[in-house]
């Protein structure tokens, strides 16, 4: 089974380690290409070898590689807002390019044109040797972006093999057990007062009221309900919508339509399209906002402006809409040991753009 993380099979520190790290799932081809000029046509293995050679000979600096590494997209995001006093110098991040290193925080990493934004890397060793005779350590890395009034942690999840009843099954690595502690560690280093924003209120009330079927300055917005996981009064709901307007929409919208139709039929109001629409809206609102929502997935699109219609890709011109954010929000309102205990977000597309959108909605400086 391929693990979406860096697996160290006992690589020799130095150039060999660098090449294997660059070749691992920790780097994409798109991340590697800007590091080395004239490398646009090289395959990933060739890129990794060339960059490792350049690093070894001092032709490429560790900072150049690390900046691309910390800025590449990740799957998961957890955001806190607040201020910090210190920007501490922790373990040199350059070590991570040439050796496995020890668990802990590395950095800061900084970009010249963004002096108020700094990145740190938290590594965590996972021993996956089991009964294997060979050495096999996994280095899981979490990226922290520290701004003036926020901290954002980014990471990728992965699965590990586990033997259950003589069967080998893939189990998700429980990152929710580690992220809260990592944030606390960094807060201590930075003397920070960081707190979770009220993500439930931000998404299901503030953003919903602002964008749902609204037009702002003549620009139309479209909000799509994609998935809801909720539990209240002993009833659990796990519904998914196809989210495609051209076909029959399943999940949430189908459920709300059926419930509304049933209620109106009982009241003798079948055929009243206005009341049907109002009833559907009320049911969706209750299911999503008020039924003990554990997580919620949505997409917000914006109508293209006249200028964008001239400059955007043919694909976007055809649909005339641009996706602003698509995310699955876990509200962290369960005090248990599952994924629902941590407030975090699964990002679709660019995790950086998801963060930037949320910072803007929270009116944080970034």
Your description of this structure?
The chain is an alpha+beta fold. 32% of the residues lie in helices and 31% in strands. It is built from eleven helices and 15 strands. It has helices at residues 15-23, 29-32, 44-56, 62-71, 179-190, 199-211, 252-266, 273-289, 306-311, 314-319, 351-361, and strands at residues 6-8, 76-84, 104-111, 114-127, 137-146, 150-155, 159-164, 167-172, 192-195, 215-216, 219-232, 235-240, 293-303, 321-331, 343-347. The strands form two sheets. Strands 1, 2, 3, 4, 5, 6, 9, 10, 11, 12, 13, 14 and 15 form a 13-stranded antiparallel β-sheet that branches. A two-stranded antiparallel ribbon has the order 7-8. Strand 3 (104-111) and strand 4 form a beta hairpin. Helix 1 (15-23) packs antiparallel against helix 3 and helix 7 (252-266) packs across helix 8. The longest helix has 17 residues, at 273-289. The chain is globular. It starts with 5 loop residues before the first strand and ends in a 5-residue tail after the last helix. The model is unreliable at 163-168 and 243-249 (pLDDT under 50).
Order of helices and strands: EHHHHEEEEEEEHEHEEEHHEHHEEH
% residues in beta strands: 25-35%
What is the molecular shape? globular
Oligomer: single chain
C-alpha Rg, in Å? 24 Å
Largest sheet descriptor = 13 strands, antiparallel
Q: Which structural class do the helices and strands define?
A: alpha+beta
Number of DSSP helices?
11
